[in-house]
Design brief:
The chain is an alpha/beta fold and about 300 residues long. It has 11 helices and 11 strands. The structure holds S-adenosylmethionine and zinc ion.
Length: about 300
């Protein structure tokens, strides 16, 4: 852990500054103590709201991965992410949306926070672009969680990893220029709270983005059959409408700058009527996205915004 990280790190319970005390970080205000393991500060605390459900989720991911046979280090695939060498709609939507983020919002020297980074594949693309990247997740697992970041560090150089709850981020206000997540906001027990936290730790005018969050049409069931297996393991899966995400962004005082189908427009452009809507100057893409979001039972959305105040 570098001194620059300690400068912005705060107690997740009471937001106070922390002091190094031996191998631990100590909060002088509420008595919280946080270990640092393999350079990764462990900033979960039993006093955080919903901590039992979050601890259950972080046990559940490796259990599910083992049962399904994907708990293992696959160096060649991990060096391609978010691109994968097989047909996978989730990864291709991640790739489309992450490329938008890289192209439009990433510049050398930016301080970037990822919430729900899992293996930290974002580092592959951000660190070589001269960004100060901090990866966070509740999952610190060595193979499918933040621990796997050590593999990426060997390839791209050092970056920071912090085990943290996105609904209670252990950082000072205004610490980052860009705060984003990929398919993680829908895991929040309270998505409004997570977006508010992402906005709090962004600087004024900074970018806040949620990439490829699963959505449902307003009339569709909150029980998405595709999430059943995760839920059975104790993973906190939810599916919200696009309007609920828009509401969370606006409530956190983030002005939405772009709302896009997570997979881009090629798929919806194959539908004749939507193809016509897409061609309408200026508003066509947003209109086609909102129509798709309201008409498709389940879909995915990518939202970019800027913190206003
Ligand atoms: C579907 S995975 C996506 C992981 C990664 N962004 C990717 O695309 O490979 C969701 C991630 O969100 C993390 N997560 C769930 N609840 C969280 C929370 N409250 N705070 C931070 N991360 C959380 C999970 O541990 C998991 O790594
Ligand atoms: Zn404290």
């Amino acid at each position: 852990m570098r001194p620059a990280l300690l400068e912005v790190l705060r107690c997740p319970v009471c937001s106070s500054e922390l002091a190094v005390d031996g191998d631990e970080l100590a909060c002088g205000s509420c008595g919280g103590r946080f270990s640092v393991e393999d350079g990764v500060p462990r900033m979960l605390d039993d006093r955080l709201p919903g901590i039992a459900e979050k601890r259950r989720e972080l046990e559940a991911w490796p259990e599910k991965a083992r049962a399904e046979g994907w708990y293992g280090e696959d160096d060649s695939t991990d060096l391609l992410l978010p691109s994968v060498p097989w047909d996978d709609p989730t990864w291709s939507a991640n790739e489309h949306s992450f490329n938008l983020l890289l192209k439009r919002h990433v510049r050398p020297g930016l301080r970037v926070l990822e919430v729900g980074a899992a293996r930290c594949w974002g580092a592959l693309h951000l660190v070589p672009r001269g960004v100060e990247y901090v990866a966070t997740d509740i999952l610190a697992d060595p193979v499918i969680g933040l621990g796997r970041g050590a593999f990426y560090e060997r390839h791209v150089g050092p970056f920071e990893r912090v085990q943290a709850d996105g609904e209670n981020l252990p950082f000072a206000p205004g610490s980052f220029d860009l705060v984003y997540c990929v398919a993680s906001l829908h895991h929040a027990l309270d998505p409004h709270r997570m977006v508010k936290e992402m906005a709090r730790v962004a600087r004024r005018g900074g970018v806040v983005a949620a990439l490829n969050e699963g959505t449902r049409a307003p009339g569709a069931s909150e029980d998405n059959p595709q999430q059943e297996s995760e839920k059975a393991y104790g993973i906190n899966e939810h599916v919200h409408t696009v309007w609920s995400y828009v509401g969370a962004f606006l409530a956190a005082r983030i002005a939405i700058t772009r709302l896009e189908q997570a997979e881009g427009y090629d798929v919806i452009g194959q539908r004749r009527r939507l193809r016509h809507v897409l061609r309408v100057p200026l508003v066509g893409r947003t209109a086609a996205t909102l129509l798709t979001q309201n008409l498709s039972e389940y879909s995915g959305i990518t939202i970019f915004g800027r913190k206003v105040v």
